[in-house]
Design goal:
The complex is a heterodimer. Helix content of chain A is 68%, strand content 0%. Chain A has 16 helices and no strands. By secondary structure, chain A is mainly α. Chain B has 10 helices and 10 strands. In chain B, the strands form 2 sheets. In chain B, strands 5-8-9-3-2-1-10 form a 7-stranded antiparallel β-sheet. In chain B, strand 6 and strand 7 form a beta hairpin. The longest helix of chain B has 39 residues. Classes of the chains: A mainly alpha, B alpha+beta. At the A-B interface, helix 13 and helix 14 of A face helix 1 of B.
């Protein structure tokens, strides 16, 4: 009766089904495809040289500036942007705020892919990437390093997000029993995932605690871990707002009815939460300045740069998000979300790249090739995201047999919704 | 004296922040309550009547309303389920017959979509969306009273394939805004029942009563036409 749920069912054997699903859907020649494909191909060529001739061949990294764009943007910023997953799973599965249930899956998928691709981009930056397994297998645990925590957390959290998302995969494949088992794991995994996230979001900041003399005093503080954690909450929520409003349009036909009707309300609710957290963050920033007696640095170009980040890209979007949610103005909310994302991006880049060794006469500037590789990583993530969303029940509708996920809406549920084939 | 520049100021800032947090919390929570308050102020003269009607008409989540008191729910893939809303249902009462378009008929938004037979008169209703009829609710055709019993559920009427679902939704009133609009319609209904019509009806609303199910049955044809034209928008064609 309903074509969408039938297409998902592997009626003619698993392999035939998978082969069919691997084929592209929709038009091949679109501006998005052309641009991202070009980026990925150039990225592949650059990475070939990076792995055959070393980092120096394609990047501006040096002994003075060992961490550049790939760490500052891909890892630091990417992981902060992926924070929406732990915030939302916490709200839905622990606090039981059912309102946000319809966007949990898409957010978890986004978080998972962000970790795989952006944290995965860490491998590009490691001189000997195969050594990445050492802290896991115990060849050299490196127990005294923050990176030990980061390595374990990244690995465990990726697995946790995969388990959180796995019921969607089981629904796609039509595995009813396995889905039941996987769905039963969700709450436990969420608790683990939230714990891991709070720790490694702040641990990424803690990495910079050992670079105290190298980071401009306006950005350095012993509270960096707390600031990283708090900012990951509103960074993640802003990403959910931004990404949600785009994919809501792009994947229109894949949006289930629960999400379709509550989407605006969800964005408004998220904007309110993000705005509230930003208010707390601003307070911490003020406290940071006072506690470190940093007002002496509040003059000159660096102070202006700092003010741009804090006033222009935290305080202003906070006002936009809160006002937007009060007036139910989605344009204002989306503008606020974009500015917030820029603010978090600027903050992470300031700490890791821009205000890092601000005193050095020659400063690190990424090469075009570094930028292209970053673009290629983002493109690859978007391709995988699109592939999954177009095939699995990510934004709904669920197959009829997966009933427990459906949100009850009394009279609104049209008759016959539960009787489809 | 080293104390003051560091800890002292920090404590003052924390106290100041906690004080600011109180009004901030109200600002953060505030937005929602405003709208109903404003709506209540606007309808103040009819407050008593409106009070009796509040919550009387069901406005379920996720349903999009057409001004002519019909509804549409997107089902994905450009398919919409449509029917008539609680207000229309209460206005006309349980219909005796449904005259629904055949599968394949092209509907136009805002034009006559189908009609209900109530006693010896026909009530036309507007189609909330433009598109092609995919399916007709056979159950409702067999038992027209379903429309009255469960207007948003088993009493749905048609499934329509809509070519531009986004544009279609923009023309409809989302459920969040529909409560105020239905109350407004109820107020207009009560206003329409001023003496000339009221005489035909007997006293209903002015006594603090609520609209009797099937007002249409009790109004003489001339008044009915006027009421339908105003409330179901069918008189404008």
């Amino acid at each position: 009766m309903r074509a969408m749920s039938e297409a998902r069912r592997p009626s003619d054997g698993l392999w035939a089904f998978l082969r069919r699903e691997l084929r592209p859907k929709g038009k091949l020649i679109t501006p998005f495809n052309v641009i991202t494909l070009a980026l990925m191909l150039s990225g592949a060529v650059i990475l070939f040289f990076r792995f055959t001739r070393g980092l120096g061949a394609v990047t501006n990294l040096s002994q003075d500036f060992p961490w550049g764009l790939w760490i500052g943007f891909d890892v630091m910023t990417g992981v902060a942007f992926a924070g929406g997953a732990y915030v939302l799973t916490f709200m839905v599965y622990i606090l039981r705020i059912e309102k946000y249930h319809p966007i949990v899956r898409v957010t978890v998928l986004n978080g998972f892919l962000a970790y795989v691709f952006y944290a995965g981009a860490l491998l590009l930056d490691l001189g000997r990437p195969w050594n990445v397994v050492n802290p896991i297998i115990g060849n050299s645990f490196g127990l005294s390093s923050v990176l030990f925590l980061v390595a374990w957390h990244f690995m465990l959290y990726m697995m946790a997000e995969l388990v959180e998302f796995s019921p969607a995969v089981a629904e796609w494949l039509g595995w009813k029993r396995i889905r039941k088992v996987l769905a039963g794991l969700t709450v436990g995994t969420v608790i683990l995932g939230v714990t891991l996230s709070t720790l490694h979001q702040s641990a990424l900041g803690a990495l910079y605690l050992m670079a105290k003399p190298k980071i401009h005093p306006l950005w350095y503080s012993e509270f960096i871990p707390i600031l990283f954690f708090v900012s990951s909450i509103f960074a993640g929520l802003s990403m959910v707002i931004f990404e949600g409003s785009i994919s809501h349009k792009v994947f229109q036909t894949r949006v289930g009815k629960h999400l379709a009707k509550s989407h605006d309300d969800i964005l408004i609710g998220l904007a309110r939460i993000a705005g509230g957290v930003m208010f707390v963050y601003l307070f911490f920033e003020v406290l940071k300045l006072i506690h470190g007696q940093k007002w002496q640095y509040l003059h000159g170009p660096w102070a202006a740069w700092y003010a741009l980040e804090i006033v222009g890209l935290v305080a202003l979007p906070m006002v936009l998000l809160i006002t937007g949610s009060r007036r139910r103005d989605l344009t204002m909310i989306k503008t606020g979300a974009v500015l917030t994302l820029l603010g978090v991006l600027l903050n992470r880049l300031n700490i890791s790249v821009i205000a890092f060794k601000w005193y050095a006469p020659v400063h690190y500037v990424p090469t075009l090739m570094e930028v292209v590789v970053t673009g290629a990583v983002i493109s690859a993530e978007l391709w995988v995201f699109r592939w999954v969303v177009n095939r699995m029940p990510v934004m709904g509708p669920d197959p009829d047999w997966a009933e427990d996920r459906a949100v009850s809406t009394d009279a609104a549920a049209p008759a016959g919704a539960g009787t489809g084939s | 004296m080293d104390f003051l520049p560091t800890k002292g100021i920090e404590y003052l800032v924390v106290i100041g922040y906690l004080l600011v947090l109180i009004p901030f919390w109200f600002v953060l929570q505030g937005g929602r309550r405003r709208q109903p308050a404003a709506a209540a102020a606007r309808t103040a003269p009819l407050a008593k009547v409106a009070e009796g009607l509040r919550g009387w008409f069901r406005v379920p989540e996720g349903v999009h309303f057409h001004q002519g008191h019909t509804w549409a729910v997107p089902e994905g893939g450009g398919v919409f389920k449509v029917g008539l809303d609680d207000f229309a249902q209460r206005l006309v009462g349980p219909p005796d017959a449904l005259r629904l378009p055949k599968v394949g008929t092209a509907l136009r938004e805002g034009e006559k979509g189908w009609s209900l037979g109530v006693g010896d008169r026909t009530v036309d209703l507007l189609s909330p969306v433009r598109g092609e009829v995919l399916e007709v609710n056979a159950e409702a055709l067999d038992d027209p009273a379903l429309v009255s019993a469960d207007p948003y559920g088993r009493g749905w009427l048609l499934r329509v394939k809509v070519p531009q679902p986004d544009a279609a939704l923009k023309n409809l009133l989302p459920w969040r805004l529909a409560t105020a609009w239905m109350e407004d319609a109820a107020n207009r209904l009560s206003a329409a029942m001023s003496p000339p019509l009221g005489a035909a009806l007997g006293r209903v609303l002015q006594d603090g009563g609520i609209p009797v199910a099937g007002i249409a049955r009790q109004i003489d044809p001339e008044h009915w036409d006027r009421l339908a034209a105003e409330l179901l928008l069918t008189g404008e064609r």
